[in-house]
Amino acid sequence: MDVIKRNNVRVLGEGTQVLMFAHGFGCDQTMWRYIIPAYEKDYKIVLFDYVGCGKSDISQFTEERYSSLHGYAQDIIEICESLNLKDVILVGHSVSSMVGMLASIKRPDYFRSLILVCPSPCYINKPGYRGGFEEKDLEGLMEVMDNNYVGWASFLAPVVMKNQEQPGLTEELEKSFCSMDKEITQNFARITFFSDNREDLSKVKVPSLVLQCSEDDIAPKEVGEYVNDKLENSTIYYMDATGHCPHMSHPEETIECISRYLETELAIS
Question: Which family does it belong to (predicted)?
Answer without folding.
Answer: Belongs to the AB hydrolase superfamily.
